Amino acid sequence: MKRPTNSMLMAGGLALAVIVWMLTGLGSNPPPTQATERETSATAAARPPRVSVQISRARPITREIVISARTEPNRIVELRAETDGRVVTLGAERGSIVKAGDRIVSLDLRDRQARLEQARAVIAYAELQFEGARKLQQQQFVPETQIAELLAQLVGARASLEEIELEVANTTLSAPFDAVLQDRSVELGDYVNSGDAVAELVDTDPLIIVGDVSERDIHQIAVGNRGVAQLVNGASLEGEVRYVSPVAESTTRTFRVELAVPNGDASWRAGMTAEMRLKADTVSVHFLSPALLSLNETGTVGVKSVDTRNRVEFHPIEIVDSSDQGISVGGLPDEIRLITIGHGFVRPGDVVDPALVPPSAGVSDASGGEPIPQASNSTLPGG
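Above: the chain sequence. Below: its structure as tokens.
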């Protein structure tokens, strides 16, 4: 048998040392048992979940009711002839602005001028007879009955004069108020009878914005409230509510509301589509990101917060207004610690470990400024 060399002895000794070291290491770190795993799980379960919270403070805003609307004239009047005659003069043209008293159409006088002069002459004669009889009555030469008869003739003559004067005045049709001449249905030479339509006048100052408010919101609208109308061309008109219907429309259960807008130069026209924004009541709201909203077991929309004992609470909310920057909600306390990260992993009543972060995004800050909504982050729990 060959005697081992020194290199072989050294290799064997090294291998033996490695085996002893491995056996020693295994003995000092025994494999985890089921009891150890249970202890680790219990420790993790006992630690409250960590969430991020921000302090949100309410601020007052004036609620707006937004409805579809349309523009209408303040009033429309159809001028009709009040006497017979032929059209001899035309005044304003269609589409022109007229002032109160401006002539629209004139009719021929025919025999009215002559009848007017005759009526004046009859009055002069009746007055002379009556005054002469009164002087004779003082000398008891004229009985009372004759005085009464002459007075009646004088009164009748004056009535006839007023009648013919009114007929002469009616040969000229004038604008009863400042308006726009919408239409004129007669031309030179046309013959009109009493009662025939002659022209149509439209008053657009103020311009009326008309909309229908639902029965849910009508209690917030009153005469004198301010409002804004946005026209389809982008123009914004501000006015005041002048009328609120006392009775709802039977089929839609909505109430007619009229917003009066100044329109002295008639630059805005009736019949246009508009969006009406009416100022309503003032409420306290919190401004926050829609990403903070949650649903409870019954499907109610709300937000989750942390109370003074670090317990999770659920608060139903009412969405008052919304924009591209976020939503304004009501129904919350004036000050609240909102859960901004982790609200999807906790339930009402759970004890949590809240981490307060500055109100830089997503909720109203203490000054009531307009914060930038918090962007949702899918890598954060409940974000």
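The CA atoms of residues 131 and 230 lie 71 Å apart.
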